[in-house]
């Protein structure tokens, strides 16, 4: 098969973790006889510095003409405490999601046996947890207008907007995935307070009738935040709106032991994007210490979701699990007396494993 991918390293540790994911992708393609071609694009703070736009047209054209996008991370502290910055790196990520029509962000949460001791939760609670968060990605507070400040600057507002169509398509997608899993969907909202949530719930109550083989439950987001920690194994597919999904998936990552472990697939109308859920970790940039596994696991999702190549994805996952069993891991998941390996050493080990 011919794989034509766009590579967007972004900011901070982005280039280092993407570098390793790309090497693993190359090794897999070599092993399975696929032809890989890739091209780099700029995005985020790097793109602002170079061309003044966090998602330049050239990068968008590259994404549109590729079969998949492998994405690193975005964000630079020089923008974080500067409220007067007119353009921010994160706008690049949001523009990319919107322009590519990536309305669904799939974040699988599952545990690795050799990492369970790293979870702050009790081992018996997290061992075997395996669920999929489906976060709506192009609506809600992130994109609703009006958004802004009053003239005197003392009042600020964001608007949460959802249309029936947006809610319907993400729910249908969630049921589709639930049917491939344990056939349970948890719809997370705040319907006791928010009007948009009441629309979500109404639409979900209509749609659930089309999937009588799937169990549907409704949960308020505050309760869901608690239950994810208290009883993660009760979830199969959890679907929710943009901001709730952002928050709940950072929370869910602690189940696995590290934010550096969770991959994601953003899918929708145009080219799909595969990216770790963590940020650009600027304190570690250039130090070769960041955990590349979430990005390598995102490459596994790319093989599966963008190319329907399941053996390839499974081998990457197996290699990642084996690297952890062998103790070849970065400092965030190393055991107390274990050796801390560098980003590239972890990549080396996984590439060797894949080639074997
Ligand atoms: C994520 C990130 C982004 C988001 C930021 C960087 C804009 O936190 O992908 O989860 O909030 O969506
Ligand atoms: Mn986030």
Automatic annotation (TrEMBL):
Cellular component, GO, one term: cytosol
Gene3D superfamilies for this protein: Isopropylmalate Dehydrogenase
EC number: 1.1.1.85
Top-level taxon of the source organism: Bacteria
GO molecular function: 3-isopropylmalate dehydrogenase activity; magnesium ion binding; NAD binding
Positions contributing to Mg(2+) binding: 222, 246, 250
Keywords carried by this UniProt record: Amino-acid biosynthesis, Branched-chain amino acid biosynthesis, Cytoplasm, Leucine biosynthesis, Magnesium, Manganese, Metal-binding, NAD, Oxidoreductase
Cofactor, how bound (note): Binds 1 Mg(2+) or Mn(2+) ion per subunit.
GO biological process, one term: L-leucine biosynthetic process
Residues bound to substrate: 97, 107, 135, 222
Site (Important for catalysis): 142, 190
InterPro entries in alphabetical order: IsoCit/isopropylmalate_DH_CS, IsoPropMal-DH-like_dom, Isopropylmalate_DH
Short name of one Pfam family: Iso_dh
Cellular location(s): Cytoplasm
Residue ranges occupied by any Isopropylmalate dehydrogenase-like domain in the UniProt entry: 4-350
Catalytic activity: (2R,3S)-3-isopropylmalate + NAD(+) = 4-methyl-2-oxopentanoate + CO2 + NADH
HAMAP family, sorted: LeuB_type1 (MF_01033)
Functional summary from the UniProt entry: Catalyzes the oxidation of 3-carboxy-2-hydroxy-4-methylpentanoate (3-isopropylmalate) to 3-carboxy-4-methyl-2-oxopentanoate. The product decarboxylates to 4-methyl-2 oxopentanoate.
Subunit structure, as described in the record: Homodimer.
PANTHER family: 3-ISOPROPYLMALATE DEHYDROGENASE
Protein's UniProt name: 3-isopropylmalate dehydrogenase
Gene name per UniProt: leuB
